[in-house]
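Hello again, I could really use a second opinion on something today. I've been staring at a protein lately and its backbone has me curious. Can you walk me through what the tokens say about the fold? Take your time with it, there's no hurry, and the full record follows here:
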Amino acid sequence: MIRLGIIGCGEITRLRHLPAAVGHPGVKVTALTDSMVARAECQKKHYGLTSYVAQDYKEVFGRVDAVINALPNYLHVPVTLELLDAGIHVLCEKPLATDSKGAIACHRKAIENKLVLAVGMPRRFYESTALMQLVLDERLLGPVEGYDWEYGMPFAWEAASTFYFSRSAAGGGVLLDEGVHLLDCLSQWFGPAYCVKYCDDNWGGVEANAQLFLRHTQSDESISGRLRLSRTYALSNRLMVYGRDARAEIQRSDNAAVILHRNIRGRDLTLRMRLSENRAVADPFFMELDNFVESIHGRSTPAVTAAQAAETLTLIETCYSKAMPIAEPWVGNAPLISKVRA
């Protein structure tokens, strides 16, 4: 039984991490900390826990074997480094850091102290993610020619703090917050990505809309794709991967399926694929925690390591460095935009 602490009791902990931890037979939640102690106490009471509650995360030292770091982005690196120095395994919420330098520092510290450091990427545990990998491995699409992924809706997360909207606290906007999940999957499926072009609507704060054009090189194949993100309005919310022989689609509304489109003898066919019929879809946050627990016991390895997170952050940094203004025809003053960005 692993003694688990959770640092940061915001909405992601209340809605995702605590339900997963309470339902996991291999962990016992022994500590909760939050800058607002009342919030941690409320969650402790709601789940009927006997956990130690504190305002200062350092009070978990000696009370836990492992920790979920669910603090605001800018605190991920310093707190994770302290936890690792204290001999505590860490599952850190995404992004692991606000830059690749911080992620690399965490990676090296975990190796130095021989501890498990996993990065929270629940999309890795979606059934559709595994199914897409199967489709690609079996070459059901033929040679892959490209992809188009749109993911966006009005921001409606009932955040417990405002750090999402501060560049210094969050490190970035929709690209770093939501895009990091998608870029992680794209790199898993198609190999390392290169930023060809990047546009967003950042006027000095954090971007709410972004568009990326990427190129992947894997063995002798080169794959190009477009990724569009939004926090202000609904997009198609689907991934479409184009192959010479067929297309594969993942819809945001069904993360347990991949839809295969192909033409046979002049007839357009659509096949919705699932891993098995009548199978309850597992909670990705539970599976993420289970992977963390199994890694601590030496029976598995983290699905997403700090080194992999650093690679994704390097790509995001490159995108930000190439940022061009996204098309905003209602502004009608391109020179002003360039001046603001400079």
User: Anything to note?
Assistant: Residues 335-342 have pLDDT under 50 and may be disordered.
